[in-house]
Amino acid sequence: MTPYILFDDGKGTLAPLTDLRAAFEIRTGALTTLERTRALLGGNPSALYVPEHLKALVASRHGTPVNTCADPDIIALNGRAPLGAMHAKALGPGQAVVEDASGEVIAARTDAAGVEALAQGRTPGGLEVVERLPAKGLMSRPWHARSFRDACLGVDLDTLTANPGRLPPEGVLRMGDAPLRCALTARLCPGVTLDLEGGPILIDENAVIRPGAVLIGPCAIGANSTVLERATIRPNTAIGPWCKINGEVGGVIFQGYSNKAHDGYLGDSWVGEWVNLGAGTTNSNLLNTYGEILAVAAPGGRHERTSEKFLGAIIGDHVKTAICTRIMTACVLHTGGMFATTAPVSGATPPFAWATDEGLRRYRPEKFLDVARAMMQRRHVEPSPAYIERLRALLASAAANEGSAA
Question: Which residues have C-beta within 8 Å of that of residue 183, sequence separation ≥ 6?
């Protein structure tokens, strides 16, 4: 097959999802868009293109050239298109697939100069549009992680459950006939219920499912994650690696390395990395009017239609909540916030917000970095210099924006 690259053109308003990762590194189903592309196209990309402020961070994670390409014939896939790889194989030289509403490229077969243009948010000249997607094909707002969730999870589970692995051990109740993939190293305790009547279930390497937990497909439990006693994992949930999950969770994507280890409801949400939700933290995902939900992407932004009736919270990396925190419908909690208020959290919150009943302050940078390192060390993860540098840049930007607002 023709070699391919993934590019993040930096368009849209996707923070906090893209504060600490490229658009193609967002977990949009059981897999990230990059992982899904590898699975669908059967190999690694020749290169990755990202905005300059993410170059060092992305390069530190992948053994793939970043922001360089010399191929005269290559397929360029927009990293904001979670299912863009499904449109790539049939493309001939100079052909493209675009999102009809915006006219933006989802996938194109081009050359190195064309890749450079696409990565900078420009459309190369001479492309022949051979397909226009009538439905949304690109992410441009934080809540689009919810919009693409079901389709992406369906594609991922079709791929990942093709090999059934092993049978669940004695004492585990299995209901229904949908595919089940249980890794050889996964541990399922007696009293676990696997409900396969509505869709498949994936339980990945070294995952642990504790007694009394109920998993309802379609859902995926990532490598090294633990579903704790009596948890209920409802359909369309995808838990990334190294998470601890309890309570009632439905329609939620966890990027990875986050904790919801206590009771409380979380629904139709996206949760970044290094998040800790205190005991009893609960969110709303439905208006009492049962109407379309409006949301604000960034602090001070305008309300926008989401086309969603069920939309919970977008919770950025390193967010922490105190016990019994209430999160209102369609909240966007930006990176690094700490919430300990008796009033519900609502709207789009500033990055590195320190919220108590005394008011809203900004997290002190060095204190934030100390807490971030401490949580990461609990998972035996040492943040790379590029990661710390990116956090410092975000902290500096938050301070500058606060100063300009004042």
Answer: 165, 166, 203, 204, 205, 206, 207, 223
